[in-house]
Amino acid sequence: MNPVVEKVTNRIIERSKSGRQAYLDLISQARDKGVNRDALSCGNLAHGFAASGDDKPAIRGGKAMNIGIVSAYNDMLSAHQPYGRYPEQIKIFARERGATAQVAGGVPAMCDGVTQGQDSMELSLFSRDNIAMAAAVGLSHGMFESAMLLGLCDKIVPGLLIGALRFGHLPTILIPAGPMPSGLANKEKQRVRQLFAEGKVGKEELLEAEAASYHGAGTCTFFGTANSNQMMMEMMGLHMPGSSFINPGTKLRQELTRAATHRLTEIGWDGDDYRPLGHCVDEKAIVNAVIGLLATGGSTNHVLHIPAIARAAGIIIDWNDIDELSSVTPLIARVYPNGSGDVNYFAAAGGMPFVIRELVGAGLAHDDILTVYGKGLRDGAKQPDMDGEALIWHDAPALSADDTMLRPVTSPFQPDGGMRLVTGNLGRATFKTSAVEKERWTIEAPVRIFSDQNDAVAAFKAGELERDVIIVIRFQGPAANGMPELHKLTPSLGVLQDRGFKVALLTDGRMSGASGKVPAAIHLSPEGARGGAIAKLKDGDIVRLCANKGTLNALVDAAEWDARPLAAVPHDGIGTGRELFAIMRATADEAEKGGSAMLAAAGL
């Protein structure tokens, strides 16, 4: 193993020792003494199989594995629309192995693409807690000996995984549905967005470009949070090998779901190959998720999600760990917005089988984890294919089919993973360097302060930002307003940068996996609403942001800085259901811990 990866892993193991042991004790008790079909009363059990049709005798008899399906299906969200028919298929696939399956429950599936820039985006991060709790409700009935999680997008996979980990005695596999086929080239979409921001094209032309980009069933094809989720599940060994980026509606996609169903019947607690989720997701698997994120230039949202997932399994990881791992993880993929091609081109170039083979081979990823499929992560470096009607797996390609998108560890795009921690008198923040030209990694400029991204866009349109400037959007953290993404700013900031100005964003909010080319210090912690120093800033203050040195400072006299009062939090949190989430805003913890109200309240 790489010595830094080994050192960080051992540090996480030592730091997590007591919490991890308590978690393992919990799931051991859940298997041996928890709620399960054997423990249900006759009335309980009768309710559980009353509507099971042909599967009723098998479920009633208790001799066959019953798979609990937790689904994020809805047909408004393109990524989750394919899941509508999955339960029917999974039940058939389960019967092929003498097992049964039931839909344990559904969870919300919020589309950040639809809510981006809207008030309802303030529900997005907390939807992860809601999803975790909904998954827990479904699995709490004690009717199941394993679980299958159907979900893809931003908060949905982390939420499903957090909820399922509290039932970590159950063998569990996550089932992707794949990305939509490639549409309008991403650079062309970006070009039209910037033209619209400048007022050079109208809404109809913009809508046409967007519709040509987001045009069918499947995940959006850029390498944002949704597709980063799939990458991480492969790096943790929780998918069938190579299954992340197979398009919906194909025979191969269906056969991978069949293979996952069959595999669940082989790793239950009645056999000799028991693989409970809580043992699969250990400290090494969490480190693998981080390494994959860094090596592929994945979404910055995961510096919130990974700590939250880890906490649900009794593991503590922080931003120092991620920063140190980034220093030794080479960037071997450039997928839009970090490159020109999308995830379909990435998959065609070699995709996750190539990435896993490279990272394990270089000692950067832990091979010795308990995967759902084989002896270790190395067995996940396989490319699925169809041989007539049969599913087969090939070894990962020896060479990348496109070295502008995917490269070996020996000749990376850059020597580090491009996810840097910046710290100073303003707090701690994340800077994603992999998407930003190196000459823009340092900026020193006066700030212009806003408490709403719409006000910043209005100032841009009024010509008030035509200069070197650091745009500050504050009171955007979990406690203030639920920590919405601020992706609406991207076109305007991109235009200013293209006009030759030095521009950056500083915020205690999020910017997502599609943050693009403008330097940004995001997830600033502590947030303004919890006494963070961003609430001290005044228009015109000079701020220096330097990813090279990992610093973030307001260049204000120390005595004056210490004496400055904090600005008032302006948000009321009323409308579009936001008032129902007030308890979450009141109890949410800091971004570095995952920004979760649920985990904070549970003392995890």
From TrEMBL:
<dbReference type="InterPro" id="IPR004786">
    <property type="entry name" value="6-phosphgluc_deHydtase"/>
</dbReference>
<keyword id="KW-0456">Lyase</keyword>
<dbReference type="InterPro" id="IPR020558">
    <property type="entry name" value="DiOHA_6PGluconate_deHydtase_CS"/>
</dbReference>
<feature type="domain" description="Dihydroxy-acid/6-phosphogluconate dehydratase N-terminal">
    <location>
        <begin position="66"/>
        <end position="379"/>
    </location>
</feature>
<keyword id="KW-0004">4Fe-4S</keyword>
<dbReference type="GO" id="GO:0004456">
    <property type="term" value="F:phosphogluconate dehydratase activity"/>
</dbReference>
<keyword id="KW-0408">Iron</keyword>
<feature type="domain" description="Dihydroxy-acid/6-phosphogluconate dehydratase C-terminal">
    <location>
        <begin position="405"/>
        <end position="594"/>
    </location>
</feature>
<dbReference type="Pfam" id="PF24877">
    <property type="entry name" value="ILV_EDD_C"/>
</dbReference>
<keyword id="KW-0119">Carbohydrate metabolism</keyword>
<dbReference type="InterPro" id="IPR037237">
    <property type="entry name" value="IlvD/EDD_N"/>
</dbReference>
<dbReference type="InterPro" id="IPR042096">
    <property type="entry name" value="Dihydro-acid_dehy_C"/>
</dbReference>
<comment type="pathway">
    <text>Carbohydrate metabolism; Entner-Doudoroff pathway.</text>
</comment>
<keyword id="KW-0411">Iron-sulfur</keyword>
<feature type="binding site">
    <location>
        <position position="153"/>
    </location>
    <ligand>
        <name>[4Fe-4S] cluster</name>
    </ligand>
</feature>
<keyword id="KW-0311">Gluconate utilization</keyword>
<dbReference type="InterPro" id="IPR056740">
    <property type="entry name" value="ILV_EDD_C"/>
</dbReference>
<comment type="function">
    <text>Catalyzes the dehydration of 6-phospho-D-gluconate to 2-dehydro-3-deoxy-6-phospho-D-gluconate.</text>
</comment>
<comment type="similarity">
    <text>Belongs to the IlvD/Edd family.</text>
</comment>
<keyword id="KW-0479">Metal-binding</keyword>
<feature type="binding site">
    <location>
        <position position="220"/>
    </location>
    <ligand>
        <name>[4Fe-4S] cluster</name>
    </ligand>
</feature>
<dbReference type="InterPro" id="IPR000581">
    <property type="entry name" value="ILV_EDD_N"/>
</dbReference>
<dbReference type="Pfam" id="PF00920">
    <property type="entry name" value="ILVD_EDD_N"/>
</dbReference>
<protein>
    <recommendedName>
        <fullName>Phosphogluconate dehydratase</fullName>
        <ecNumber>4.2.1.12</ecNumber>
    </recommendedName>
</protein>
